[in-house]
Fold each of these.
Amino acid sequence: MKAYVAGVGMTRFEKPETRDWQYWDMVREAGGVALADARIGYDEVEQVPVGYFSGGLISKGHPLGATGVAQTAELVWQRRGAAARRQVEGARVGLAHNIGLGGAAVVTVLKAV
């Protein structure tokens, strides 16, 4: 959960793209540490925008092996201002979290330049 390793700095991500069922698992497993690292109090969590503004992976048919591509494409469209009705105003930094078979895990961070 330490995004600053990627050179992004401590950032509140604009609506991260996570797997449809994993956000609460992430919070439960690493929430306390992540919130402490980011100096975000539990009372502020509701203010951090989280959701599946793209409709989530299930809305895309959840194609085996290609779900991460859909997440990354959504992040790119958001950064470019090309997400149509789903556009998050001022989206500059995005995060996608995905896992695959065999326990593979990937977190992608994109920043507009």
Amino acid sequence: MPRPLTRKLEDNVNYLKELLGVGVSFDIGVREFNIKNVRIALFYCNSLTDNYAIIMLIKELLLLGEDDVYLHKHAFQIIHNHLALHQVSIMDDLDQMSTAILSGLIVILVEDELKGFALDTRRYPGRNPEEPETEKVVRGSRDG
């Protein structure tokens, strides 16, 4: 059964923290900050999300507060208009958001809003196509 967002950011954040095991597991990152008296929470999976994208997103959001005098009234729409990513989804279900976070998306929650953003900035861990170290021991070294 879907779990809709509430207008209280603290309730939404606490639900996601409990559901995702924040504090028990260090795979999930949470950043909470204020922009012109609008509280925002950012959730992401450390190993699947591009760290540079997180830094740039936070920087962009913090700079947003300097210019926009109407941020406190229209925060959700202003943030949506200023997101510089092309894969932005709007979600209104906390369980769906938790799945998105565990899939490597960044989720942004805004105070007094019944919906949030899911941003696709996934970075998949790669492997080089070379012989594993364990097989070298089993088969012996290769010369030539």
Amino acid sequence: MQAVITQMSNQLCLCGHILRSETERLRGRCIECGLQDDMNEHTVSTLLTYAKEQDHCLQPIVHMARKAIAAERKAMSSFYKERSMCEADFLDAYELCEALTCIANALSQWAYVAARLWYALELAGEDHQPYLRTLHLWSTQQFSRLLSIHLAMQASIQVFCRERSILLTFSVVDQALDLSAQTHARTKTDVSKRIEALAY
């Protein structure tokens, strides 16, 4: 594995937590990230049951949340993949950028989930609001967590490429992040208009 990534992973997880145990340092991920992945899977399973029994309109949210979880897993697998010393540096850089793109995709998907849950919360009756409010908070926390991971991953890839004189631009990933932010804003505006229309 690349020196810059090994050096980083021996100290901090991409999420910012200190890697305390030898197992964490070898994997490059903290135990909190592993627990968060399990918790996300459990939350989505619970949401699916709720969607089937209470509100079928929430099923697309389940689908998108699962895509976000899968994208994060793929990103971490690519980022921490063991690489042969004979592999060309530019191939390593390509795979690392693929991991970064997966994180950007997950950010867009969590933005969608958060916006749709906010919409559902605005329309829900009092009996369902506490659960939906918890879900909305969970989705925004995942977006914030992945944004921190994205920034840390991008910084480490920049160092890796700079040390090997590999020209790199993050314009595509930056465009994806801008698009997710714009989509989130447009969705919330559209939702607000729908709610106003329903009020009349």
